[in-house]
Known about the structure:
Blueprint: H1 2-12, E1 27-30, E2 42-47, E3 53-57, E4 71-73, E5 89-95, H2 98-102, E6 116-121, E7 124-129, E8 134-139, E9 143-147, E10 150-157, E11 160-167, E12 173-176, E13 193-195, E14 198-204, E15 207-211, H3 221-225, H4 234-244, H5 252-259, E16 264-265, E17 272-275, E18 280-285, E19 288-294, H6 324-327
Antiparallel strand pairs: 1-15, 2-3, 3-4, 5-6, 6-7, 7-8, 9-10, 10-11, 11-12, 13-14, 14-15, 16-17, 17-18, 18-19
Amino acid sequence: MAALMCQVVAMASLTLEDPSVFDGNPRYLTDSAGKRIVPGNFARINYCGNGLFILAPISPTNKFLMSAERFLIDRDGKPVTYKIPKGSTLFDVLTLGEQLDLDMEHCISTLPDETLLRFVEAGRSGVCDKYGNVLVELRSGPIGLQRPGVVLFAQSMANGTQFLVLDSKSKKTALWSDKDPGFDSRTFKLQREESRGAMFTQVTPDRIVREINQPWGTADRIYWADATDYPVKRIQMFNRFLRQYNLIGMDKERLLEELGEKTKVDASDGSVLSVPPLSVHMRFEQDKLVSWYFTDQKHNQSQLITKNVVLDLSGNSDAPRDFPALWRGEFPATEPKL
């Protein structure tokens, strides 16, 4: 795998960290008997058809982020040569030409000249050929497969948006007159299945993407320090903290250690701490936490919490004001913890 990494990274000239996040469950690729096709675990494995896979490594510095490298491999785990513009990241294989787009079960180990790749950089995407020659400059508009061998993309104009098509064989563009363009993708959207608590996706009869379920039911210092909001909402991570620890009575030094550097000391005497992502204020006496409260528009100091509680997070939001139980000041008491 080291040889694979060196070869693909050198070809792609990737040096920037991709800020994309993932759900924290590493993936790996196996055959139908469970034998790994390539060593190592990855944040994402996309099947592009024709036996091609894009592997996104886990960032070496943050387990909730993907690295900027992308490894393109064939069904046997061998690297497939490609180039993209320096400083960008391979996003997907848009087309391999009309013939292979129509026969996606035919496996290949080299990219044909009709290949068009989508690359991304700083939140925008563009299109290049397999040699890294840019055919569609970076843009914010949608890009996708219009039909086999033809890519469709949007272009902003002074009087609105126009759509153009790019032919994979001639590499020429033309206006697309359809008022309701449709975008497709070669990247297979396959259903995940679960067996004995493990997730897997059968991408072909003899290739399976397996997923290692991580126990994300506990509070995570790294996650909290980075103010990450995916795959776990910040308020849900805070609730995990409340379930694990006795917040009331906790020593200030330990609290700062658990909640990280983003926690701020508000009062001149150090009696109040603020947790910015959640608008939470915490009050201390003799360096012990005695009460806390939410400071958003739906809460005030009259709802001081002075006992160890958990939150009723019935809903799908990250803001305390969006949970009715919190509006009413309903905080179920918990048993003593750590």
